[in-house]
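Notes from hallway chat w/ T.B., transcribed later so I don't forget. T.B. wanted the structure written out for a chain they're using in a teaching module, and asked if we could keep both sequence and C-alpha cells in one place. Agreed to drop them here.
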Amino acid sequence: MRAWAQSITAALLVVLVATLATVSLTDGSGDGPDSVTMVQGTRSPAVRSSDRPNIVFVLTDDMRDDDLAAMPITRRLIADQGMEFTDAISPHPLCCPARAELSTGQYAQNNGVQHNRGVHGGFQALDPTEEASTWFRDAGYRTGFVGKFLNGYGPHDVRPSGWTRWDALTRGVYDYTDFSMTGDGDPVRYTDSYITSVVEDRANADVRDFARSGDPFVVYAWHLAPHYRITPEGGRSLPPPMPQDRGLYRDARPTSFDAPSFNEADVSDQPPYLRNLPLADTGEVQAENSARLEALQAVDRAVGSLVRTLDEEGVLDDTYIVFSSDNGYSLGEHRYVGKDVLTDEAMQVPLLVRGPGIAPGSTSDLPVTLVDVPATLAALAGVSPQWQVDGASLEPTLHGRTQPFRDTTLVQTGRTLGDGWSHRGVRTDRYLYGTDGVGGFLYDHATDPDEMVNLIDDPRYAAVRDALELRRSELVDCAGWTCNQAFGPVPDTLPTDPLLERRRGGAQRPPS
C-alpha cells in the first residue's frame, strides 16, 4: 500500500472535530471493545430471531487506496476497529467489470462482463439471476441495495431477483445532483439533492427497518464519489463536493507527485496504452485530487452515520461492515490519469472489514482481490453460494487463523469489440506480467516497485517471462478452485543485483 500522506491539513482537523461531536469511540470502556457511544439518543436493541450476523457493504467509485488518509471517520470506525487488507486489488480495474465481480464472485470470463459498454459489457452482459443477493435471500436474510449498480442499468431494466429492497441509480448516474433512482418500485427523480446524502439516508432506512424486523440483513450502500462528474448531456467535470467541504483540500498535495513514476520521462518501453502520452498537467492533477478528496468527505460522514444507526438499533456488535472501492485511479503516474490499465495505481483499492471476532487494528498482507469479497461474505453469514465462485473466502484470516492462499492472481482488462479482451496477465508478490497477444509488460517489483522499466523483451528475464506466461495461459480460462492455485516459486535465474541482494538478505531466495 502506498505511504500515507505526510501531513494532515487544518481542514481535516476541522472535519475530525466536527465528527467527534456526534460520534465518539469508547476505546473499550463501553458495552464492548468495538462500541460506539452516541451523544444523542439511546440504544433500542432489536429482538433477534437468529444468531446469524448482518452484513453492510459500503463501496466507493474510483477511490485510490491512499485516499483513506483523508477519511478519518472511516479509518477510526472501520480500520481501527477491524482488519485492513494492505494488498487488496481490483483485478479488472474498471467500474462495470469490477461491480460484476462483486455481484457474482466470478471473473469476467465467467460472468460475461468485460467492459463498461459494448457487446461485451454493461449490465446487459450480466445474467441478473446470477447475483449473489439470492444466496442471502434464500437463506432468510432481508436484503437492501442502494446506489450505483452496473453501468448501463436503466429504469426499465429487470430488477435483480435477490433484493428485498432495490433502490438503484438509473438516470444521471454520474451527475451528483440531477439523477433518478428506482425507489424500490416507486421511481424518484432528484434535482436538488446530493447523491451521497440520498444513498446515506436510504441505506440507514433499510438498516432501521430490517433491524426492527428481527431478521438478519444484508445492506449494500454503493456510493458514486469520488468518480468524476458526467452530466446527462455528456459533459465531464470534477466531482462536486457538498458546500461545507468545498475548499477543504484545495492545497492538498497529491501523493502521486511524490512517486518516481509521476510524469515518467521516458515511456517508450511501456505498453501501448502508456506509450507516447503527453506529460500530465500538474495543475489539473492537483485540482482533480482536491475535488476527489472533498467529495469523499460526505462518504466519510455517511460511514459514521451508518455505524451510528447500527448502534442505535442495537445490532452493531452483530454486524460485519465492509468498505472498499471498485477500482483505483492513476493521477499522473506514467503520465496517465484514469483507470482500466494494469498498473499498481489503478488496481490497488482499500479493503477494510470490522465485525464479530475480528481483532481491532489488525492487518493482513494477503494478495486479496474484489473477487474474494462475495465468497467471504457468504462464509461470514454461513450461507452457500448457489454457483461456482472464483474467489477465496477470507473468513479464516479475518478471524485470526492462518490460511493457505494462491501465489498468482489473474489480472485483466477488456475491450468493447473483438473478443472483448485487451490485456490479460498475472500478478505475484514480485512480478506483474501481461500481454495483449502482440506485446506486453513485465515488471520486477523487487528492483522496480514503481513499474518504470518494462522487462518484457529483456533476455535475462526469459525464464521468468516463460513461467509467468504459463500461469497466465492457465488462469485466463480458470473457474472455481483453478483460479486460486499455488504454482510455487518463479525461476530465479536473474543476474546478481546489489539492491536485490540486500533485499534477499544474502543467499535467501526472494519470494515469487
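Follow-up for T.B.: The two ends are 18 Å apart (CA to CA). Might be a good example for the class.
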